[in-house]
Write a structure and sequence with these properties.
- By secondary structure, the protein is of the alpha/beta class.
- Helices cover 35% and strands 21% of the residues.
- The protein has 2 domains: 11-142, NAD(P)-binding Rossmann-like Domain (Rossmann fold), CATH 3.40.50; 147-321 and 365-379, Dihydrodipicolinate Reductase, domain 2 (2-Layer Sandwich).
- It contains 12 helices and 13 strands.
- The protein has an 8-stranded mixed beta sheet. A 5-stranded parallel beta sheet has the order 2-1-3-4-5, sandwiched between helices.
- The longest helix has 21 residues, at 327-347.
- Bound molecules: nicotinamide-adenine-dinucleotide.
Amino acid sequence: MTSNFTSQRPLRLGMVGGGSGAYIGNIHRIAARQDRHWNLVAGAFDVDAARGHAFAANEGLRAERSYDDYRAMIAGESAREDRIDAVAICTPNFTHFPIAKAFLEAGFDVICEKPLTATLEDAIALEKLVRETGRFMGVTYTYSGYPMIHEARHMVSTGQLGTIRTIQVEYPLEWMATAIESEGNAQAAWRTDPKKNGRGGSIGDIGTHAYHLAGFVSGLKLDSLTADLATFVEGRALDDNAHVMLRYEGGARGLLWSSQVALGSSNGVRLRVFGDKASLTWFQEQPNELIHARLNSRTEIIKRGADGLSEAAKVRTRTPPGHPEGYLEAFANLYAGFAEAIRAKHDERQPTAIGRDIPTAYDGLKGVAFVDAVVDSTAAEDQPWLTPVAV
Ligand code: NAD
């Protein structure tokens, strides 16, 4: 494929999935447009082609760039001078692998939703394909887009917490507390079907976010884990609550909780990292703040946008402190990072700060390997400590 790339122009984005009534596709579209790095120009938005075309027309896309399915999209876009620079895959988990593989093989960069794939075998193959093709693949681990998460990572890596002793991370949700999958909720239906979702229920859907966040901020490599998955909603084929104990290299310990049945909790992602000098707490409902507590000292609240924060936090900040930024800006930071990574690759230079420390295919593979080890640990009689194949 010849390149018509100039790194100054907005990049051209295509999307698979994310059509009418879908959840995450709309978040991708808002995030991609926010900083003018991307224009959405093509799509196969729906498993139902007619619905997808109607959606594309509503979005203002030219009819010739609304495709019946992703294969037609690859054929159509490959033939164009102004072809898309990358595709965003916003479909249910089991479709990520064939769609991503086809785009990578056709020479396109890819932005893929988590979990990377529904099976470990597919995740290993996909990550290998990314390396072999030399294409870029970003994986949307949303929470690593927050500036205060980057600040926390910076503080840990510069020794401000001392030696890390324990990490407590949780992602509780309540929306699947009853059997909504059998009452017509399409999003819950595929999430509770092992063939479409993968082996891990809550642990695959949201536990992977928590796992990524803990590793991203602490910089620690997992050694092993043991897990206890539970299914509270009768008849559900996958876990809806997960407790995982983590042992990190170097001796730090961790505890991870994900739940889809935690009444009163809506995306209450919380991370606490405790070192021998200080601790940090971050909570998604107050994402502009980090609570920093030092031994025998006053506890301080570090605010996004304040003077003296790290470069990594600054480049992900748009407004002065006090004006709240949140989920959509965090997602836009990922899109800004992906754009910068793609531009830097094209220009054969190192990415600037926004394009560094972004989630990629290997992080996606680590997430799927984590889920696999969690499910295996629970399934075994004595719940052994297991090391995921990629850590
Ligand atoms: P959804 O059910 O709301 O939407 C899925 C969309 O994909 C629908 O428009 C459907 O028609 C379309 N689709 C399905 N198969 C397709 C195909 N072969 N070709 C084209 N379109 C197809 O799902 P969702 O809740 O938006 O989740 C989608 C993905 O995003 C999942 O992998 C999920 O894990 C992930 N997700 C990530 C986050 C995050 O924070 N990063 C949040 C929610 C969901």
